[in-house]
Write a structure and sequence with these properties.
heterodimer, A: mainly alpha, 4 helices, B: mainly alpha, Rna Polymerase Sigma Factor, Chain: A, Arc Repressor Mutant, subunit A, 2 domains, 9 helices, 71% helix, 0% strand, binds zinc ion
Chain lengths: 76, 196
């Protein structure tokens, strides 16, 4: 039997998951907690979104150009 | 022949001018100083022009310049450390800000419970989101913002971050955990406030 994990500890695993692979035990604890806790599920999605910001920045930079060329009449 | 080169150059300059503001705000998130951010971008642009004197209007050019900028940012960061401008702290005094999000028993505090931000794709394409992100990054404590930025914006592994900062890996994870919690709270407040 493992002890029920609380939200604060769950956010620790959600964060760690983005930096390093979790152990089997950690994965399981997190999965069980997320299945039962809608707040942590939201938090997990928000952390994932923050994790995308780097890639998204690159896309924004490409989009600046698309805006520029569509202004001058080019399709791209 | 000569004319083609000139046209190519003109297009290149136009494209560089167009991305420059975005490059500067990216560099500023990492370097926490506008003048240094502008310098890093200037160096990256100069290096790009020098390396690519036969610019042929190819796509992916900006991504390539962005890649050069990341190296220049790391150089500038190292200089900041050498000059004692930035001293990475193992212990940041922001535990209280995190604890405020949770009750004593480890559950979310009623006020801090995370809400739905809407469709992630739409959120990430909203200029308003990026404005809020920028503000919340600026409001983070120095080390938290820099470590977060190295990890999530620059894409360094925590191992590489340790090498760059002298922080221990364990502390890196703690700092990242706190930074993410603070950021999510800050972004949520502004993101949902204006929309309501
Ligand atoms: Zn929870």
């Amino acid at each position: 039997m493992f002890k029920m994990m609380m939200c604060k500890e769950a956010t620790h695993l959600m964060s760690k998951r983005l930096d390093v692979p979790l152990t089997f035990q950690e994965k399981l604890s997190l999965k069980v907690h997320l299945a039962m806790c809608s707040y942590c599920t939201q938090c997990n999605q928000q952390f994932s979104l923050l994790h995308e910001t780097g890639k998204q920045y690159e896309k924004l930079i490409e989009r600046d150009i698309v805006t520029l060329s569509s202004g001058s009449g080019d399709s791209r | 022949m000569q004319q083609i080169t000139t046209e190519g150059n003109q297009e290149r300059m136009q494209r560089l001018v167009a991305v420059r503001p975005r490059l500067i705000s990216f560099a500023r998130l990492q370097l926490r100083d506008l003048a240094r951010a502008e310098d890093a971008v200037q160096e990256a642009i100069e290096a790009a022009i020098e390396k690519d004197d036969t610019f042929a209007g190819r796509s992916g050019y900006e991504t390539w310049v962005f890649g050069i900028l990341k190296y220049k940012i790391l150089d500038s960061l190292r200089a900041q450390r050498r000059e004692g401008w930035w001293q990475p702290l193992d212990e940041e005094l922001d535990e209280a800000a995190i604890d405020r999000q949770f009750q004593k028993n480890g559950r979310w505090d009623q006020e801090a419970r995370p809400s739905d931000w809407g469709d992630p794709e739409t959120t990430l394409h909203s200029e308003r989101f990026w404005k809020i992100f920028d503000l919340c990054m600026t409001a983070l404590p120095d080390t938290a913002a820099r470590v977060f930025s190295l990890r999530e914006l620059m894409g360094l592994s925590t191992e590489d971050i340790c090498r760059e900062t002298g922080l221990k890996q364990n502390n890196c994870w703690v700092i990242l955990h706190r930074a993410r919690l603070r950021l999510r709270a800050c972004i949520e407040r502004d993101w949902l406030a204006e929309e309501a």
